TrEMBL record:
Biological process (GO), any one: translation
A cellular component term, taken from the record's GO annotations: ribosome
SUPFAM superfamilies on file: L21p-like
Keywords from the UniProt entry: Ribonucleoprotein, Ribosomal protein, RNA-binding, rRNA-binding
Keyword Plastid: no
The name this protein goes by in its record: Large ribosomal subunit protein bL21
Organism this protein belongs to: Palleronia pelagia
Source lineage: Bacteria, Pseudomonadati, Pseudomonadota, Alphaproteobacteria, Rhodobacterales
Protein's job: This protein binds to 23S rRNA in the presence of protein L20.
Family from the record: Belongs to the bacterial ribosomal protein bL21 family.
Record's signal peptide: none
């Protein structure tokens, strides 16, 4: 007998004995879990789920998927190129019993995705996942109460794979109390000017002194993408 289950936004057709890789579950190796979102079991089709049906499985281990490379090259003269690698967090498990009914009375732990709020990691994470999630939550609390500034998730070192570097001429306020009118740049409106000021950019001469890596850094900060390279070229004529 086979069943079609849903987990991690995907659907899987399974039968007893199958070994399956799914999006990371909140369970340790050796634990038994039960999938309750069953779309079809045997000849019964759910509407959308089959009430009382379930699929039980044993967690073999927490693994990572194959590395996926994302490469982007911008065609502008002062553009940048970046390479990102990613390995998806997965759970390897072996399908056990397939229940057509009574799954809600088995008492087996429900298979829940590891990405849900409040999950603090599994033993295979060796503490890193737990520390990261706890640290992020604490930072959000401090930022909300004004005790800390919101953390910016941009690269800061030229040695990183994204090849960006923080400019050394960013300012906390305009020189002599008067900023240049950045809105004269094609495509820069009041909202973008505020973002640039918040990132420490107030003057055209700051922009013209940036290297390609520094342009990439500021573009990440303000969400300008490849357009920033064009603005830097325009700034040289201001």
């Amino acid at each position: 007998m086979f069943a079609v289950l849903k987990t991690g936004g995907k659907q899987y057709k399974v039968q007893s004995g199958d070994v399956l890789r799914v999006e990371k579950l909140a369970a340790n190796a050796g634990e038994k879990v039960q999938f309750n979102d069953i779309l079809m079991v045997g000849g019964t089709v759910g509407t959308p789920l089959v009430e009382g049906a379930g699929v039980q499985a044993e967690v073999i281990e927490q693994i990572k998927g194959d590395k996926v490379i994302h490469f982007v090259k911008r065609r502008r003269k002062h553009g940048s190129k970046r390479t990102k690698g990613h390995r998806q967090q997965l759970t390897l498990l072996r399908i056990g019993d397939i229940l057509e009914s009574g799954a809600d009375k088995t008492g087996v732990k429900e298979a829940i995705g590891a990405g849900i709020a409040g999950f603090t990691g599994v033993a295979a994470d060796k503490g890193d996942y737990v520390q990261n999630r706890t640290g992020q939550s604490e930072m959000k609390k401090r930022a909300a109460t004004g005790q800390a500034a919101e953390k910016v998730a941009a690269k800061t070192d030229a040695g990183d794979t994204d090849a960006t570097a923080k400019p050394g001429n960013l300012l906390t306020e305009p020189r002599d109390g008067k900023a240049d009118d950045l809105k004269t740049l094609n495509g820069v409106g009041p909202a973008m000017e505020k973002k640039m000021n918040a990132a420490g950019v107030y003057h055209f001469d700051q922009m013209t002194a940036w290297s390609e890596a520094e342009i990439g850094y500021v573009a990440d900060q303000i969400g300008a993408g490849a357009k920033l390279a064009d603005w830097v070229a325009e700034a040289k004529n201001q």
